[in-house]
């Protein structure tokens, strides 16, 4: 089998998605998600200018070798742009192999360890009461795990809360919107919010929270400690984790489970976190973490340290990534939970999806390969439109983490 061509499809059904399509001489093609929120065109260039010319002519069956060709073979390795491109190639090759063998992808990853995937939804509101009400709505819809974010009195822009009267979507049109932040008000409000959520909904529902890199290690330790009575499923990204050792401080003070890694690209971003058991869930997704080939190894490594997967699954990850993640989630023993931020309906005009939600879980059908397809005619109706993630400043103007 030979790779004859590959192309990159950029489309914006409400938000930008980049999809790699790899063609073979046997008529089978594979799809890979190559979306990097707010940096879409950099990945397009990396794929078109550097990867696709070298991909043509290779045997798509040799996934391991091709992965190392684009990873080890590149002098300028790692980083989000490079690794998103490597991920897309890898995902497309696994799609091709599974289609060639006429079997759903999970069968090539060891088969099913479970028949459904526990997911968590997003609830948020302008302040505590609205947030509690919206959490209740999701519980009524059948979700068994909910990530809860809330607007905070006196903080003009809390992470995860919509600025307009529509569903939360982190990227905004044009250059980055500047948000304003106040950590001390946040630290005061969040433990009260979770106390109220537990008092309202009891102990059955899994509750999660994303700090979104906004605390220093000691602030995060305080928050994790104060949240202990609310028994969170996890506290996500308590600090910005360029400094892996900083997570030691949180562990020293609290038993709240920690999830981290949606911005990581390789296992080298979290070796200390795993070997010292400083985290409980690793969030690096297929689309940014080197695809299925690298994540299989990273998940296996994590499993020896009791760390489970909890893949990033926001709307900026396309349905191709979501389906590939579900195959992975079904297969690996140390699966923990899958984030599920529902795409707008218009996204499903462009992508034909093969998964559905029922009573807290996602199910995927037995379509060979990853199982998602793209309608290129429909994709062309929605041209690329520049969008960026916000930036964040403290009230006195100091640049801060978003
Ligand atoms: C999450 C995330 C997202 C990211 C977004 C960036 O946990 O879902 O933190 O909201 O900010 O995906 O592109
Ligand atoms: Mg997050």
User: How many individual helices?
Assistant: 12
Mean pLDDT across the residues is: 97
The portion of residues assigned to helices is 25-40%
Q: Please report the distance between the alpha carbons of the first and last residues.
A: 45 Å
The fraction of residues assigned to DSSP E strands is 15-25%
What is the 3D shape?
Answer: globular
Name of the CATH class of the largest domain: Alpha Beta
Name the CATH superfamily assignment of the largest domain. Enolase-like C-terminal domain
Radius of gyration: 21 Å
CATH architecture designation of the largest domain: Alpha-Beta Barrel
Let me know the largest β-sheet: 10 strands, mixed
CATH-derived topology of the largest domain: TIM Barrel
Kindly give the count of domains.
2
Give the low-pLDDT segments: none
- Strand runs, count: 20
Category from helices, strands and their pairing: alpha/beta
